[in-house]
Amino acid sequence: ILLLLRNPKDVATSFYHFSNGMSPIPSYDTWDDFFVAFMTKKMPWGCYFEYLSKWNKYAADENVMTITYEELKENPVLGVKNIAAFFGISLSEKELQSVVERSSFQSMKENSQKTHGAFGNILFRKGGISDWKNLFSEDQNEKMDKAFEEHIGGTKLGIKLKYEVYCKA
C-alpha cells in the first residue's frame, strides 16, 4: 500500500478550491467559512486529521510505504525510485525518466481533459506547495498547527509530515 500524505494546510486549501468548483458538493462563500467547516469536521469526506490518525496504526506495517507530496515535489526521481523499489519493480533509466515525466503535475494537468474529462480543470489546479500561505490568517495557521499536534503530532505519520513540511520549508 502506498500512502501519500500532504501538508494539512495545503489539503485544506486544495479542497476549498475543489469544493467550490464541484457543484455536487457543498461550496463556501468565503475561505473563513470553509476553514471553520474544515476544522469542525464538517467536510463531505470527513476530517483529514482523523483520516491520518486511522492510517497511523498501519504506518509501521511492512506492506505500507508512506511518502509525502512534498517529498515527491522536491525530488521526483528519488520518489519514483523508492516507490518502484518498494513494489519490487525494476526500472531502466529510460523507464524511470518516463515515469517521472508522465507523472509530473504539469504533464497530468496537460492531459487532464483526456484522462478526467470535464473534471480535469477542477482536479488539477496548481499542484504546488505552500499555497495555503495565500489564504490562511495567522490565527488560522495557529489553529491548524494546534489541531495537528493534538491529533497526530507525536505519531509516526505526524513526525514524518512535520519533518517534510515544517523542517524543510
From TrEMBL:
Its EC number is 2.8.2.-. Transmembrane segments: none annotated. One of its GO terms (molecular function) is sulfotransferase activity. The keyword Ribonucleoprotein does not apply. Residues 1-155 form the Sulfotransferase domain. Belongs to the sulfotransferase 1 family. PANTHER family: SULFOTRANSFERASE SULT. Pfam families: Sulfotransfer_1 (PF00685). The keyword Cytoplasm does not apply. Signal peptide: none annotated. This is Sulfotransferase. Keywords: Transferase. It is an enzyme of class 2 (transferase). InterPro entries: P-loop_NTPase (IPR027417), Sulfotransferase_dom (IPR000863). SUPFAM superfamilies: P-loop containing nucleoside triphosphate hydrolases.
